[in-house]
Amino acid sequence: MSTGKVQENTINPFLNQYSCPVAGTLDVIGGKWKGVILFHLLEDKKRFNELKRLNSGITQRMLTLQLRELEADGIIHREVYPVIPPKVEYSLTDFGQSLKPIVLLMREWGEEYMETVLTQRQKNVGE
């Protein structure tokens, strides 16, 4: 039976900042944009402006920030081509590909339950 205590990781103390593995996962892919960015990179590499167009509503600054964080975590690869004008493409790393089942399950959940969620939210607004 769990005591609710978080066991300290003596091998890698960096992991102690997360109360559970879900918290660590959400730190990597959570937020409004990261999951959507990953979804659009599942099948093929994309250029910055293509990602911006696919993620309607995201600012250039926010997209840059999210891409940098995903790159720093080893989830995506940023390929800079030595051409003029500059060409940069983003793709999932092999490590990032390990998130594919999670992203696809989130899509399935959204397809199945978003209408229910939106209806519930609308009911709550009226109360």
UniProtKB/TrEMBL annotation:
Pfam families (alphabetical): HxlR
Protein name according to UniProt: HTH hxlR-type domain-containing protein
InterPro entries reported in the protein's UniProt record: HTH_HxlR, WH-like_DNA-bd_sf, WH_DNA-bd_sf
Gene3D superfamilies: Winged helix-like DNA-binding domain superfamily/Winged helix DNA-binding domain
Keyword annotations from UniProtKB, A to Z: DNA-binding, Transcription, Transcription regulation
Keyword Transcription regulation listed: yes
Residues in HTH hxlR-type domain copies: 20-118
Gene source species: Planococcus donghaensis MPA1U2
GO molecular function annotation: DNA binding
